[in-house]
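User: Structure please.
Assistant: Input sequence and predicted structure:
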Amino acid sequence: MSIGGSENQLTDITEEEIAKNFKVEISQEYVVVFYSIMLGTTLALRPWFHRFIF
């Protein structure tokens, strides 16, 4: 896709419609993904945390 004013407006409109229509579903999915990534990173980086912080 080429970058243009009309296409930028269309993307903004679609993002607003998606946020309005599926706000709860998207927020729940982002929370699940966020916590899964945080748990994965904390478990993977636990030895480095103990080396540098503790």
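The two ends are 48 Å apart (CA to CA).
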